[in-house]
Automatic annotation (TrEMBL):
UniProt: pyridoxal 5'-phosphate binding residues: 73, 176-180, 257
Modified residues (N6-(pyridoxal phosphate)lysine): 43
Family of this protein: Belongs to the cysteine synthase/cystathionine beta-synthase family.
A GO molecular function held by the record: cysteine synthase activity
Residue ranges annotated for the Tryptophan synthase beta chain-like PALP domain, each copy included: 8-283
Catalytic activity line of the entry: O-acetyl-L-serine + hydrogen sulfide = L-cysteine + acetate
GO biological process, one term: cysteine biosynthetic process from serine
UniProt cross-references to Pfam families, sorted A to Z: PALP
Lineage of the species this protein comes from: Bacteria, Pseudomonadati, Pseudomonadota, Gammaproteobacteria, Oceanospirillales
Keywords: Amino-acid biosynthesis, Cysteine biosynthesis, Pyridoxal phosphate, Transferase
TM spans (from-to): none
PANTHER family: CYSTATHIONINE BETA-SYNTHASE
Enzyme Commission number, as recorded: 2.5.1.47
Annotated protein name in UniProt: Cysteine synthase
Amino acid sequence: MAFPTLAQTVGNTPLVRLARISAGRDNTILAKLEGNNPAGSVKDRPALSMLREAEARGDISPGDTLIEATSGNTGIALAMAAAVMGYQMVLIMPDNASSERKQAMAAYGARLIGVSKEAGMEGARDLADEMIARGEGKPLNQFANPDNPLAHYRTTGPELWEQTAGRITHFVSAMGTTGTIMGTSRYLKERNPSIQIVGLQPADGASIAGIRRWPEAYLPDIFEPQRVDSVLDIGQREAEEHMRRLAREEGILAGVSSGGALAGALRVAERVDNAVIVFIVCDRGDRYLSTGLYAPES
C-alpha cells in the first residue's frame, strides 16, 4: 500500500455550501476551504509549484538559500515546502504580521527578517531584491513568477470545475499577489468564457491581510487585468463582520480576507439569479486570534 507524502496532500480541498447565510434569489454560494491544506492556506499550492518548477529547471538545488518577501500565508507555505524539499528559507515581512504567522514560519525552520509597518510589503520586496543582488540567496518572487498562477491553473481551476460539475457561474477571490485569481480565471474561462471572475481590493483606508491595492510601480507582473471581469472594493469593517459571520453562522473559522470574499460573494448574489457563486476561504482563522478580531464582545 502506497502512502502519500505531505506534499501530495496539498489541494483537493472541500467545496461546501453555506447552510445558514442566505444567498437569496435562488443562488447557491459555495466556499472553497483552502485552510484544509497542510500549512493552512491557499498559498500551499503556489509554494510547492514555485519550488518544484525551479528545481526541475535546475534554477535551485536542495540546500540552497531562498529569499522571499511575504505578508504571511505565502511565507508559512514556503517555509513548509522548504522543509519538505530541503531548502533554507529567508522570509522578509512587515513587523505587524500576527505573532501566530511569525511563529509558524519559525517552527518550519525559516529565518525571519522584519521591516517596519510603514515600509510595508513594498519595503519587504525592496529588501528582498537588495539581498538577492548581494548574492545572499536565490529568488522565487511570487509577484512575477509564472509558476504561482500555474499552480491554480493546474489544480484550483480544475477542482472547481469538477466539484461544481461545470455549473460554476461566478468566481470571487481576493487579489494580493493575484496568483489565485489569474490561474483560476485562465482555466475556468477556457472551459466556459461566460463565467464571471470577480476580484476584490481594499477600499480606501482599509488594511486587510491578503487583499492589496498596489501602487503602480509594485503591481505584480503576473497580473493580467483582462482576466478579471469586475473588481469590488471591500471595506475594513465589512470584511471583519463577514469573517465573524463565517465562524458564528457557518462554523468556518477563517481570516479577514475570507470575510471580504464572503462579502463580495453576497454582493454578487444581490444582482444575479440562479447563479453558482464560489469564493475562496484562503486560510484558517486560528492564525489571527492574537489580533483580537475574534475577541468576545464586551
